[in-house]
Amino acid sequence: MAFATNQLLKFSIKYLPAIATKLAITTLIAVLPLPVKAVTLVTSRAAFGGNDGIDWSSLGKVFNPFAPDPSAFLPNFFSAVSEGGLGLGVNVSQVNDSGISPPFVFQTSFIPKGIPTNFADGDFLLFTGFNPNSGFPAIGNPGPLTINFDQPVFGAGTQIAVDDILEFNAFVSAFDSANNLLGTFSVPGTSSVTLDNSALFLGIRSETANISRLVFSTSESNRALGINRVSIIAVPEPGYTVAILAFGISGAILRVRKRSKGTPVKPAL
């Protein structure tokens, strides 16, 4: 009986500090509420950065307005995959006007290579659709245009312009996976045919990977909108994040074990 008691005492002295530390860490992670993280607006692609993205030419359907082919039209809801393998769901709101075309992708450039806009020469634009027989300015699908991410991201953004309108207000809203609004912003933009890459960039960044959906729209109720490449700040590889967390917890347990043995602990740098 005395032997069992001594063994239990030795076990408690050796292992209980580490067990208590691990339980404390687990309890803190489970109980303490995570702070609300603010989202911020970014209006420069260079400042936004990004480690992933999608070019709309990757859909494999590019509409040629000088040789129209209806097979190049897109459905109002379709799936896509980013260059980094992130799944996307794109939804262009439907309109009750049979004269307005479905969404499509076209290349912006000088005629006859493409259609001139104020995006960069050679960009591929996702266009919400318009009525080619409605005259000028053309009646079009105003959206909104929604992008859903299969996995929440730290941020995403794109350039935006409106068909046949010189000045407009653009709106972007971000939502989390529970459909909570994280933030919404409005910025004035311009459209032209100068091919000078002056189209407004609208991006939203968050301190955590909690952005599951972005919604783009404009102040124009019957004009089509277009966006170019979407830049994305995607979540790092899961193994990398888990390794960092495991290293931190292991380090804490190791320091507790050293203290229980009376071994001096080297201070953290």
Form type: globular
Spans with pLDDT under 50 lasting ≥5 residues? 1-5, 16-36, 239-254, 265-269
Q: Helical amount among residues, as a percent range?
A: 10-25%
Biggest sheet details: 8 strands, antiparallel
Order of helices and strands: HEHEEEEEEEEEEEEEH
The total count of strands amounts to 14
Characterization of the model:
The structure is a single chain. This protein has helices at residues 2-31, 45-48, 238-261; strands spanning 39-42, 52-54, 77-81, 87-92, 104-107, 124-127, 145-153, 155-162, 167-175, 181-190, 200-206, 211-218, 225-227, 230-233. By secondary structure, it is of the alpha+beta class. It folds into 2 domains: 1-33; 39-238, Jelly Rolls (Sandwich). Strand 9 and strand 10 (181-190) form a beta hairpin. Helix 1 (2-31) packs across helix 3. The longest helix is centred in the first third of the chain and has 30 residues, at 2-31. The protein is globular, with a radius of gyration of 27 Å. Mean pLDDT is 83; it is low at 1-5, 16-36, 239-254 and 265-269.
